Amino acid sequence: MNLEARWHTLHGWLGTFAKRAAALFCMLSLIGCSGVQSALDPAGGDASRIYWLTVIMTVGGTLIFLGVTSLLLYAIFAPPERRAWLGTRGTIVYGGLAFPIVTLSALLPYGLIVMRDTDVPQEGALPIEVIGEQYWWRVRYPADGRQTEFSTANEIVVPVGRSIAVSVTSADVIHSFWIPNFGGKIDMIPGRINRINFTAERPGVYRGVCAEFCGDQHARMAFDVIALEPEAFEAWRTEQAKPAREPEIPLLARGRELFRVGGCGSCHAVRGTEASGQFGPDLTHVGSRRTIGAGQFPNNIGTLAGWIANTQHIKPGVRMPSYGSLSGEDLRALAGYMESLK
Amino acid sequence: MNAPESPRSFGRNEPDYPNPLPRPEGEFEALQKAWKAPSGLSFITAVNNTYVGLWYIGTAFLFFILAGILALIMRAQLALPESNLVGHDLYNQLFTMHGTVMMFLFAVPAVEAASVYLLPNMQAARDLPFPRLSAYAFWAYFVGGLVFFGTIFFGLAPNGGWFMYPPLTGSKYSPAENADWWLLGIGFIEISAIAGAIEIIVGVMKTRAVGMSLDKLPIYSWAMLVFAVMIVIGFPAVILATLLLEMERAFGWPFFIAERGGDPLLWQHLFWFFGHPEVYIIFLPATGMVSMIVPTMAQTPLVGYRLIVLALVATGFLSFGLWVHHMFATGLPKMSLSFFSAASTAVAVPSGIQVFAWIATIASGRMKLTTPSLFIIGFLFIFTLGGLTGVMVAMAPFDWQAHDSYFVVAHLHYVLIGGMVFPLFAAFYYWMPVASKYPLSERLGRWVFGLMFLGVNVTFLPMHITGLIGMPRRVYTYPVGMGWDTLNVVSTIGAFMIAAGVAIFIYDLARKFRFASDDNAGNVWNASTLEWLPNGNYNTRSIPEVVSRDPLWDQPNLSKDVEEGRYYLPGTATGGREALVTSPFDARPQYILQVPGPGWQPVLAAVFTAAFFLLLTVKFVLTSVVCGVIAVGCVIWWLWETDPGPVRPPADIGGGIVVPVYVTGPANHSWWAMIVLMVVAGMVFTCLIFSYLFLWLVNPGAWPPQNVRIPEWTWPSLAAFLYCGSAVLIAAASRQLRGEDRRSPISVPILIGVALLFLCGGSAIDLWAQWGTDLSPSAHAYGAAVYAIMSLQIFFVLTTLIMGAYTIARWLARRLDSVRRTTFDNTMLFWYYTVGQGLVALIVVHCFPRLTGGI
């Protein structure tokens, strides 16, 4: 085939390709736009800064990529006399040495500035402590002003507009704490306490996840993040600090009794009862959480019962054994009691 | 320093060849006879680079297919959310094995294997300088690798991810043997990689065509040289890391257990100090291949030779300064992140130089769109994209989002498939005519390329998005409704497209590949370098003299003249296998190296070494030790036949050049190998000292911990005195062994014997002194670090003990005298190293805690 003709075909092909790629990218980014666990849907200042860094680098990178591939195709298909200028040492010096140095010298300071402004400790931040455990999250809100401390699990509730200072560590292996909508991740390393700071700017429900492989059920180690208006947050906090509710009907009282005789309290704490185990999640207000099983299933009496009876089937390898021997009625009572712990 | 001289300085005018025609009767037959491959069952004892190289490449390719199949199973599992195709247990083994096998059993061995095959040919050397060492490295890898892979069928495969982060991989959270398979299996295959690297360094520096000075060295040789140096510097870190973790698992020495003063981050530093260079270790040889293929396909010399060499060296250098970018999310101070962020962007520059050098070369020639060219174009496309996302993740804040997500999975596959697999496939197509009677099919090649190229992009391009919208890596399943479903199905389809491409390649290979050496398909591409000379098992009939970087283009009759035997060493001077050793800078002939031929020793040594490590993994300690002893025995048996001495007077290799058949000292190839080995040992030790200091930093005020005594000054002083004394005795023995008169005085074995006593005594006193303080290696990281340093020293002392005893045995067998003394020289070098390491170890262990602990 003659080279000129090839060149034209290629021109046309490239044009179409660019249009299609742009369309594809838009389509793909739409998928991300509503994500509860997406770095492309920032809901806080840090995540926004990183989002714009991402956008700028993606656009810049795409342009450079198109430039390099066009040059390559030009070098192959352009007529020899037209491409001769490209076949010299100058190409290497300008394209391979000068260009990257200039581009990277511009990008690097920008990246460093974003780094400086991201994850910055603020005065008056709300402290939260999170400990990663195989395969769930122990969450503690230390005393803050008038508010007393309390523990919960697998759910982090934050007020909008106030900086949050999360201290993380691990009780066993390395985990990583990641809420994509609010910012980057921070590793939870045994023997070390790491900190990450972020501010939620949009109320809503988000999702965090363990990002460092931590064993059998790494895939099922997530948590809910709920950003509330400050007043709603204070109300939530006051509720959470209270001891557990008393059962209101006999079925629930029976559930509490089953919880007691079944020895659940040796691993789980329900504040206000004799159950004070520290091995597993604090269940004082388990009924108020959105999900169970570390962000796995919606929280209702059915899933709670299923979880208690089939833990090892649903999430094989977790520390909690399956309590499959409970009768249907007992299971309903126990799950009902759990659900009532709002 | 030997400055490169003008190419003509020891050449001659065109019609005036080093050796006249016709060649004497029987000369060629003698050469053929010396290099004849063994037949029948003992075929596997072949050590020649043509055979070992091909077996090696074939095995590496087998692991590529096996690890690829693992990836297909993973992709099938991830095609749908909440899928139950494979359970979490198998999935965790699958991704660990996929990463481990691809990195350690495919990528590094494949590029090393290709160079075992190609390097000697490209440099017109008859063979690599240590063919039995390559055979040993190959068999150890073959046996160890297959057994290691087999663990997946028994549910015993490692399952902690290919970078094996403790404490997940420690005995508390991984009590089963899965992790031990990784530590011992991979630890030992790394030793095989180091053996190969030593071979490559000496091969590139010492065995080249006459006149192939450093500025005429093929770029591939440069790339392999940088590659090998990087292995020598980088691999010791991971060898040490695996040793420490295995000691923690086996004996409870708490290097990585936070409650007892250890730190999980120590592993990450050691692992990534190896792990990041590893990426370039895989990538640089591939760029070397590209730099060979592009000029041939464009039929024009490479543009920017010097810049490319500079880029290779710069990449190698920079790659050791950016390991922390794998640890951006570990909570290190922003100050150090800034440094590593800058270094990580800087490494893009040398890659840019190489990419533009290839574009310039293509533009200055006329690119034929053959299958190798297509793979090169695909490589440039994919690798550029991977490089750009690499710059993205070099920005720490972006990495905080992308790290450990599918974005990184996409990035690393773009870099590794683009940067290594595509060049390797280009190389398969390109060099097939050297190894086979027929080249591969160009028609099917287009299908292979098309499917693989589309497949890679369909699989991995969507993953960038999958990661940014929140999908973490290493999950065996994912919930419905996260927006990841479509993207994952697309990726799975892409993976099967790649598989289809590879399947067609295998079909074509089965159809077209027929092993050949002297009846190969020949120079079908009109390439310019020496591997395209007519060759046999002995490689080229005579060793050419080259005057440019593209000898086959610039010296038109070279092929014919070389084949007729007009160049150097057209036959065999000693009647056996030989290689011509040349000077490291300007490649003048220095001496004739008597190359060992086929033998069972390397095969048996490798099998028993593998057995030692594998049986140790399953805790058959006694059997394992027996195998270890047999392996050492095989190595000694193998070495016994080396160091032949001057079996004949210096020989005329043509053109009036007369070279000896035996030399000692720094000109000797094994002297070089020993120096490289000492660098490896020194790096292991340096990493251990780094670990000691790192553990001190994480235990401020507890170094040593409360209630730990440090031995009195008397003992380390005495040990240091004994170490120094043994070095003095060895120096004295060396003086006794000088001269040209082939003396071998009785004082030599006596001095060695006494020196051995001193050396062992020094080590024993140190151990005894620590033991006397009741220091426990398992109570705290301090004790663990002290005992680790002492254990390493004891290992070196024991090795020196074996070498010293071996040297005495050589003397007793009258195989050691003042001329034939290479064995002694090598022992002496190792001895000095052991003494030096011992002294540094004493200073660190005894002085450092006194300085910091205030005792």
UniProtKB/TrEMBL annotation, chain A:
Chain ranges of the Cytochrome oxidase subunit II copper A binding domain: 123-239
Which Pfam families does UniProt cross-reference here? Answer: COX2, Cytochrom_C
Q: Where are the transmembrane segments?
A: 21-40, 52-79, 91-112
How does this protein sit in the membrane? Multi-pass membrane protein
Q: Per the record's keyword annotation, is tRNA processing included, yes or no?
A: no
Catalysed reaction equations from the record: 4 Fe(II)-[cytochrome c] + O2 + 8 H(+)(in) = 4 Fe(III)-[cytochrome c] + 2 H2O + 4 H(+)(out)
Keyword Magnesium listed? The answer is no
What InterPro entries does the record tag this protein with?
Answer: CcO_II, CcO_II-like_C, Copper_CuA, Cupredoxin, CuRO_CcO_Caa3_II, Cyt_c-like_dom, Cyt_c-like_dom_sf, Cyt_c_oxidase_su2
Q: Which UniProt keywords apply?
A: Copper, Electron transport, Heme, Iron, Membrane, Metal-binding, Respiratory chain, Transmembrane, Transmembrane helix, Transport
The family database entries (NCBIfam families) matched by this protein are listed as:
CoxB
Please state which protein family the record places this protein in: Belongs to the cytochrome c oxidase subunit 2 family.
Please identify the protein, giving its name as recorded. Cytochrome aa3 subunit 2
Organism in which the protein naturally occurs = Microvirga guangxiensis
Lineage of source species: Bacteria, Pseudomonadati, Pseudomonadota, Alphaproteobacteria, Hyphomicrobiales
From TrEMBL, chain B:
Q: Which GO terms describe its molecular function?
A: cytochrome-c oxidase activity; heme binding; metal ion binding
Query: Any stretches that span the bilayer, and where are they?
Result: 54-74, 94-119, 139-161, 181-205, 217-245, 279-298, 305-325, 337-362, 374-398, 410-432, 444-469, 489-507, 622-640, 671-695, 715-734, 746-765, 785-809, 830-851
UniProt entry keywords in alphabetical sequence: Cell membrane, Copper, Electron transport, Heme, Iron, Membrane, Metal-binding, Respiratory chain, Transmembrane, Transmembrane helix, Transport
Region of interest called Disordered, as start-end residue ranges on this chain:
1-23
Q: Where is the Cytochrome oxidase subunit I profile domain?
A: 29-559
Q: Name one Pfam family in it.
A: COX1
Compartments annotated for it: namely: Cell membrane
How does this chain sit within the bilayer? Multi-pass membrane protein
GO biological process terms, semicolon-separated: aerobic respiration; electron transport coupled proton transport; respiratory electron transport chain
In the UniProt record, which is one GO cellular component term? plasma membrane
- Cite the InterPro entries for this sequence: Cyt_c_oxase-like_su1_dom (IPR023616), Cyt_c_oxase-like_su1_sf (IPR036927), Cyt_C_Oxase_1 (IPR000883), Cyt_c_Oxase_su1_BS (IPR023615), Cyt_c_oxidase_su3-like_sf (IPR035973), Cyt_c_oxidase_su3_a-hlx (IPR013833)
The record ties this protein, via CDD domains, to: Ubiquinol_Oxidase_I
**Family from the record:** Belongs to the heme-copper respiratory oxidase family.
Q: Protein name, please? A: Cytochrome c oxidase subunit I+III
